[in-house]
Design goal:
- The protein is α/β, with parallel strands linked by helices and 368 residues long.
- The protein contains ten helices and twelve strands.
- The chain has a domain of 181 residues: TIM Barrel, CATH 3.20.20.70.
- Helix 1 runs parallel beside helix 2, helix 1 packs across helix 8 and helix 2 packs parallel to helix 3.
- It binds iron/sulfur cluster (SF4).
- The site of iron/sulfur cluster has 13 residues, from helix 9.
């Protein structure tokens, strides 16, 4: 019998499972601020696989492995290898989001061999100072911050090439770069980051600073809008709009001089993308389910702490596939999250307070 995938109350299907493997991170980026504490009762590989199987059965074609920093998780390759056969049941891609600091050449090869298809690395600047500041490295001492940032920058730049050498081809969208841009903090890095993406033939995805979690000091005036980012970069290099794909988070632009081979050209058609969660929300077709490292399912990045569905009753002592699928389907059918749209509606009504949830679960816990 063919099962009909559930739709939420706003008619949205489940398409993406963002599975967090750890709440720990090796960085302390101020926009996320992990507390470095792992929640008790981390799921086992078998339990995680049961969650993935259930999500795929309900329509999720994309598995995005995340953290905290997922490369801190020893069982990462084993989980990828265990999930890879689910391609026969509708899983189209297995992707990883990482800060890249721990991505050695060997690790990139083992991840590829296990079945990983896509990596998105994070880099929020191109100088030691900017990278150190955005990674929360070096404390208040500017010299130490720049020195540590330089070390991190070198590691991430090397990680890009390790991933490429392992077979992650940016021309097929298998290797991308994420950067969070905060007005007055690292917006001076916009053009250098764009230049880096062009030089290396990578899609750079610029992400608006968001009010995730409760610790990042977010204020509306700290947001540099995606439109302004595109405008600034478009003044330097010609950009052609490519739009936002169905259920995607990023609006894409193609460099008008792509592939011309001239001085400073992308040489291979690198794209620019912007994620405008704050100024141009895309809740209308949001299809993402998040499951934390300890097995709590959330249906929005901005969910309130404690509002998730604890999946462990269907995972312990042994996974109960039918019960788990039913519980997730029921939760998805009750979903009506549209936080970013609500935030924007309040702004447009000149009421700059936070909408429905004034407290959000932390980003390092939810998986970004
Ligand atoms: S605010 Fe929530 S519902 Fe809207 S796009 Fe983000 S995660 Fe999806």
């Amino acid at each position: 019998m063919t099962r009909v995938p559930p739709l939420d109350r706003l008619g949205r299907p489940l398409g993406v499972l963002r599975l967090s493997l750890t709440a720990r991170c090796n960085l302390a980026c101020p926009y996320c601020l992990p507390d470095g504490v792992e929640p008790p009762g981390l799921l086992t590989l078998r339990q995680r696989l049961a969650v993935i199987e259930a999500a795929v059965a309900l329509g999720a074609g994309s598995l995005r492995l995340t953290g905290g920093e997922p490369l801190l998780h020893d069982g990462l390759e084993a989980l990828i290898a265990a999930a890879a056969p689910l391609r026969e049941r509708g899983l189209r891609e297995i992707a990883l989001t990482s800060n890249g600091v721990l991505l050695s050449a060997e690790r990139a090869r083992t991840l590829r061999a296990a079945g990983l298809q896509r990596i998105t690395l994070s880099l929020d600047g191109t100088t030691g100072e900017s990278v150190g500041r955005m990674a929360g490295a070096g404390g208040a001492d500017p010299g130490e911050r720049a020195r540590r940032g330089q070390v991190l920058l070198a590691k991430v730049l090397a990680a890009i090439e390790h991933a490429r050498a392992a077979g992650f081809d940016p021309r097929r969208g298998e290797l991308k770069l994420n950067a969070v841009i905060q007005r007055g903090v690292n917006d001076d890095q916009l053009l250098p980051l764009a230049a880096l993406g062009r030089e290396r033939g990578l899609e750079l995805r610029l992400i608006e600073f968001m009010d995730v979690g409760t610790r990042n000091g977010w204020q509306p005036e700290t947001v540099l809008s995606a439109a302004e980012m595109v405008d600034r970069i478009g003044h330097r290099w010609p950009l052609e709009p490519r739009g936002r794909g169905a259920h995607g988070t990023a609006s894409r632009w193609r460099y008008g001089d792509a592939g011309t081979g001239g001085s400073g050209s992308t040489g291979g058609g690198a794209h620019l993308a912007v994620v405008a969660s704050v100024t141009a929300p895309f809740c209308g077709d949001c299809n993402r389910l998040r499951v934390t490292a300890d097995g709590i399912a959330y249906t929005c990045l901005f969910a309130a702490p404690g509002s998730g569905l604890d999946l462990r009753p269907w995972l312990q002592p042994q996974p109960d596939p039918v019960g788990l699928r039913q519980a997730l389907a029921d939760r998805w059918r009750r979903r009506q999250d549209r936080y970013s749209e609500e935030r924007q509606e309040l702004w447009q009504a000149s009421a700059p307070q936070h909408p429905t949830t004034s407290r959000h679960a932390e980003m390092a816990y939810l998986g970004g």
